[in-house]
Amino acid sequence: MDYKQHWDEAFEKTETEQLGWYETTPQKTLELIHETGIQKDARILNVGVGTTTLVDSLLEEGYSNIIASDLSSSALEQLKNRVHSDQVEYIQDDLTHSEKLIHIEPVDLWIDRAVLHFFNKEEEQKAYWDLVHQIVKPGGFVLIAAFSLEGAEKCCGLPVHRYSADMLKNDIGEGFDLKDAFDYTFINPRGGERPYVYTLFQRKR
Ligand SMILES: C[S@@+](CC[C@H](N)C(=O)[O-])C[C@H]1O[C@@H](n2cnc3c(N)ncnc32)[C@H](O)[C@@H]1O
Description:
The protein has helices at 3-13, 27-36, 54-60, 73-83, 122-135, 165-172; strands spanning 44-47, 66-70, 88-92, 107-113, 136-147, 154-155, 158-159, 176-187, 193-203. It is an alpha/beta fold. The chain has a single domain, classed as 3-Layer(aba) Sandwich (Rossmann fold). The chain has a 7-stranded mixed β-sheet with strand order 3-2-1-4-5-9-8. The longest helix is centred in the middle third of the chain and has 14 residues, at 122-135. 36% of the residues are buried. S-adenosylmethionine (SAM) binds at residues 3, 7, 21, 48-50, 52, 70-72, 75, 94-96, 113-115, 118, 155-156.
């Protein structure tokens, strides 16, 4: 399966506000970002960024060093045309076979909402966690929101691997402390319930 084509088509065929994962305000993600206490000029990497309004919110709040990365060049193009900011760097890359992110300077915060859960194969998950371990600074944070064990079995036509906070804690490994975790049921633009688990980890120094 050509996943880049799959995601490009998803973003080309549907208006951002109608996407099944669209949030008007990414409130829960923002709450966890505030909890980290990072500086406004901290390096923030949003993986699988899509066309999320989180980037607009981060800019509005004064964060000035944002990296927006996605497999889909269509999503990145739409995002770039919407936010018009030189405080955002765009990197098209595949988290499961990274060629570009592996070479970037370490980041203070890694943000993933609704991306990791698409990686069903062990080697995809390993590639994801290896990248986290490689590019998150000691003392840096990892924020992951994934479909919870009560969540949907598919998203955007693809099967998902659902998580609990304990599973994420186990998978990220002993080098990270769990700082916060909670369940949150997102209501999607069609009124469907999408139960998520939100987690915030900090890398040990
Ligand atoms: C459900 S959307 C979530 C988008 C965004 N995080 C949000 O909350 O609105 C999943 C995103 O993951 C991206 N994605 C899927 N597989 C990927 C991969 N292997 N590497 C990088 N991004 C990927 C898709 O292109 C899409 O933008």
